[in-house]
Amino acid sequence: MNGDDEEIVAASVDPSLPLEWRFSQVFGERSAGEEVQEVDVISAIEFDHSGDHLATGDRGGRVVLFERSHVRNSSGGARRDLEDTDHPLRHPEFRYKTEFQSHDPEFDYLKSLEIEEKINKIRWCQTANGALFLLSTNDKTIKYWKVQDKKIKKVCEVNSDPSKPGAVASSGNPTACLGNGGVPEAISSLRFPLVTSHESSPVARCRRVYSHAHDYHINSISNNSDGETFISADDLRINLWNLEISNQSFNIVDVKPEKMEDLSEVITSAEFHPTHCNMLAYSSSKGSIRLIDLRQSALCDSHSKLFEEPEAAGPKSFFTEIIASVSDIKFAKEGRYLLSRDYMTLKLWDINMDSGPVSTFQVHEYLKPKLCDLYENDSIFDKFECCISGNGLRAATGSYSNMFRVFGVSPGSTESATLEASRNPMRRHVPVPSRPSRLGSIARVVGRGSESAGGVDGSSNALDYKTKLLHLAWHPNENSIACAAGNSLYMYYA
């Protein structure tokens, strides 16, 4: 048994051991000298529940789908099958499946407002009859998509030779009469076009459009575990939808005050509980998270539980409330723990304990002395996402210079890793002068590259605030992370 086999076996025996991350794939890797196209920048990432499909959305309103590779190697198929049986934890590899234009730029003539086509969120729905279903949203409109493989039929031959398959012989009777009394000329055979089925091709079709329900920008959508409903949230309201009904929604949370000058906080993220269809959580710009129960009342303005960190002793600064704003929340798979991300930290909450977070992880503590600079260049308002592993033992979130952090969140764990979204995630980060560059089409894929040991500097002087890793997702069943660095989609495994 070689070293790699020993690592796989050890990981399967004790999943709490620190992980060693390796580069797996990159889609849309930029070439030297290429310019970044704003419409190609990835703005959303989401794995489906099985982990066999991955969806990304970009600022150009497009949704790109990837599927897990299950290609059988003809030269060594039997051996590969045996290896897969021996080592079921082999890391997933994906390939490009299809893409489609989900949203287009619009203009609200009533409010004289331009509506961007940028995809804010993507959520997978339950599959049915071999078809994939997903929700995508921009600032105002949510769309329900069906993606299904359809076989393409083509006419390969017309008037083929009678001896070939597909030619149909007639009676050959020269005196056969037509229906209107005419007599046709003598014919020896009747020939038809030969139609054959070619490879199937995925086709995306918009099933429903959910619109005109939000006055402010939609920041979240989340599917319910009942498979029939979902929520959408903007700055002040959360609406409940039925997937089958697109012209009606129910407002379940409304934090808009009677006078807008009394507004003190806004909704920043909302998420359904993964197993209890009556529970959902939403976060606010004041750093609090509210858990609500839909069984209590039709309008859930009152929460069942409030999660917020006790106020720290000492004076507050101008930036205290800004950096406390929660940008993203995610439930763990079993639903007991809740992960939240604010500007400086990643917090893990137990929904049975509302006295404070179970754990707090410093993402980039070294930026505290530079809050004034971050405020001036608007970086302090960046919205970083977070994700948690399927087994609930680790969490990940992004930072600047295309770096992301992975933390062990199980009790007693001290695991912490800083990685860079590149072919060599563990290399020591060396700042380079910014230059015009362009990331290629996301459909381009590069296989696994070399790995080497090393570390990544945590110095704020070396950080590039323009290259920030905002979006990432953890595979639901395996230790694999997909993250977006500009136009490129990087994938890593451990």
From TrEMBL:
UniProt keyword Cell inner membrane, yes or no: no
Domain of life of the organism encoding this protein: Eukaryota
GO molecular function annotation: protein phosphatase regulator activity
Entry's Gene Ontology cellular component terms: protein phosphatase type 2A complex
Xref: InterPro entries: PP2A_PR55, PP2A_PR55_CS, WD40/YVTN_repeat-like_dom_sf, WD40_repeat_dom_sf, WD40_rpt
The keyword Cell wall biogenesis/degradation is annotated on this UniProt entry: no
Quaternary structure and interacting proteins, as annotated: PP2A consists of a common heteromeric enzyme, composed of a catalytic subunit (subunits C), a constant regulatory subunit (subunit A), and a variety of regulatory subunits such as subunits B (the R2/B/PR55/B55, R3/B''/PR72/PR130/PR59 and R5/B'/B56 families). Interacts with SIC/RON3.
Family to which this protein belongs: Belongs to the phosphatase 2A regulatory subunit B family.
Record function comment: The B regulatory subunit may modulate substrate selectivity and catalytic activity, and may also direct the localization of the catalytic enzyme to a particular subcellular compartment.
Protein name (Swiss-Prot/TrEMBL): Serine/threonine-protein phosphatase 2A 55 kDa regulatory subunit B
Gene name of this polypeptide: PP2AB
